[in-house]
Design goal:
It is a single chain. Helix 2 crosses helix 4 (about 150-160), helix 5 (about 170-185) packs across helix 9 and helix 6 packs across helix 9. It is globular and about 50 Å long. The relative contact order is 0.13. The strands form three sheets. A six-stranded mixed sheet has the order 1-2-3-4-6-5, with helices on one face. A hairpin with an 8-residue loop joins strand 7 (about 315) and strand 8. It is of the alpha+beta class. It has 15 helices and ten strands. The longest helix has 20 residues, at about 230-250. The chain binds zinc ion. The site of zinc ion (ZN) has 5 residues, from helix 4 and helix 5.
Length: about 350
C-alpha cells in the first residue's frame, strides 16, 4: 500500500524549529467560518495578549514552512502539543500532491479556554503576501481531540485554491468541506466509512435548507443573513465529488488537477472567481467537466439530489436511520476506494518528511 495510512506513525517525527524572527502581526480577514455544530460558538473574543514578548517560530513540515505566531500565552507543554497537531494536519493536507498548498503560511494561534472543543473557531488569512490561518484553540484538550478535529485540514485545504469572492463562496467552502473528509480518511484519521458517512450527513444537512427563493450563488452572498451555511458548504462539496466521479470515468482524478493547479496557477496575480477556477481546472484536465457543473450548481435553488451521484460509487441509503450502506459491486467499491486513496498521484514512491509512503 503506497498510501499515507502510515501518517499517524510518523507524524510525531522531529519538528524542525528554526530561529525566531519577530512577529509581524497582520490584520485578519474573515473569509471562512466554521460550520455545523461549531456555528453555535459564534465569533469569539480571544484572551488578551499577555505582556510577554510574542514570538514566531518557523516550523518545517510537508515541504513548506509554517510560521507559528503565538498570539496568546502558551506554556511549553501546550506549544509542544500544538506543534504536533499542526504537523499532523499539514501532513494530512499534503496528501493531495505530497506537499503543503503553500511554500510558506502564517499560523496565528490564540487560546480560548472556555470551551470543550479543541479548535472552536478558525479562519483563513488571505489578504497578506504570505497567506495563512488563524486558529482559536483550547490547549487543555488532549492531542487526540486536536487530531480528530477537522478544522485545520479544512482551513489548510482552502489554501490550495485562491479565494473566489463572495458570490462563489460555495466553491471555496465546498472544496475545503470535501477535502477535509477525503484527506482525513487518506491519512487514516477517519475510516473510509466514517468519511463517506460524514459527507452524506453533510449533504443531508444541505438538503434541509429552506432558502429555496435563492440560487446557490445568491445564497453565497447572503450566507450570514440567511443562515445558508449548510447548503453553501455541502452543495459545494457535492460539486467536487461529482467532478471527481466524472474525471474518474476519463481515467483522471481531482487530485491530479488540484496538484497541477497548485504548480501552474495558484500564485497567478489575478482576480479569481468560480468561473475562472472552473475554466482553469478544465484546461488542466483537458475536459469540459468543471465549467458546465459550475454553471448548473450556481443556479440551483436547492441541494441537488445526491443519491444518484453516490450510487455511481456504490453508496446507498441505509435501511434504518442515517447510516449509509455500500453496494456489493466490486467495480463500484474500487471507484470509491480510488477516490480516498488518490491513486493516480501516489503511484510510485512518494517521499516527504523522511518517510516513504
Ligand atoms: Zn471554510
Amino acid at each position: 500500500m503506497l498510501m499515507a495510512r502510515h501518517l499517524l506513525a510518523f507524524f510525531m517525527l522531529s519538528i524542525s524549529i528554526l530561529s525566531s524572527p519577530s512577529n509581524t502581526a497582520a490584520e485578519l480577514l474573515l473569509v471562512g467560518a466554521k460550520t455545523g455544530e461549531l456555528l453555535t460558538a459564534g465569533p469569539l473574543t480571544a484572551e488578551p495578549l499577555t505582556a510577554e514578548p510574542l514570538t514566531a517560530e518557523p516550523l518545517k513540515v510537508a515541504n513548506a514552512e509554517l510560521i507559528i505566531h503565538w498570539k496568546s500565552k502558551f506554556n511549553a507543554a501546550e506549544r509542544h502539543k500544538l506543534r504536533n497537531w499542526l504537523v499532523h494536519a499539514a501532513n494530512t493536507t499534503s496528501l493531495i500532491g505530497g506537499q503543503f498548498p503553500r511554500q510558506q503560511a502564517n499560523i496565528n494561534l490564540y487560546r480560548y479556554d472556555n470551551t470543550r472543543q479543541a479548535v472552536p473557531w478558525a479562519h483563513t488569512v488571505r489578504h497578506t503576501r504570505v497567506q495563512g490561518v488563524t486558529f482559536y484553540v483550547n490547549p487543555a484538550m488532549a492531542l487526540e481531540s486536536f487530531i480528530s478535529d477537522w478544522t485545520a485540514v479544512h482551513e489548510f485545504s482552502h489554501l490550495f485554491i485562491p479565494y473566489p469572492g463572495r458570490d462563489d463562496l460555495w466553491i471555496s467552502e465546498g472544496f475545503a468541506s470535501y477535502y477535509q473528509n477525503i484527506l482525513m480518511a487518506r491519512a487514516g484519521t477517519l475510516s473510509d466509512t466514517q468519511a463517506w458517512q460524514k459527507l452524506v450527513d453533510g449533504f443531508k444537512r444541505g438538503s434541509n435548507d429552506s432558502n429555496s427563493d435563492l440560487t446557490l450563488t445568491e445564497l453565497s452572498t447572503q450566507i450570514r443573513s440567511r443562515g445558508g451555511f449548510m447548503r453553501v458548504y455541502w452543495s459545494g462539496a457535492l460539486y467536487f465529488l461529482q467532478a471527481e466521479i466524472l474525471l474518474q470515468q476519463n481515467n483522471q482524478s481531482l487530485n491530479a488537477v488540484v496538484d497541477q493547479f497548485s504548480q501552474c496557477c495558484q500564485q497567478e496575480h489575478k482576480r479569481w472567481n468560480g468561473q475562472k477556477l472552473a475554466l482553469a481546472f478544465d484546461k488542466i484536465a483537458n475536459t469540459q467537466v468543471f465549467t458546465p457543473l459550475f454553471n448548473r450548481y450556481g443556479q440551483q435553488r436547492k441541494m441537488p439530489d445526491y443519491w444518484p451521484i453516490l450510487a455511481d460509487i456504490g453508496i446507498l441509503p441505509g435501511k434504518k436511520g442515517n447510516a449509509i450502506q455500500f453496494s456489493a459491486d466490486s467495480r463500484l467499491t474500487q471507484r470509491r476506494n480510488k477516490i480516498i486513496q488518490g491513486a493516480t498521484i501516489f503511484e510510485g514512491t512518494t517521499t516527504f518528511e523522511g518517510a516513504t509512503l
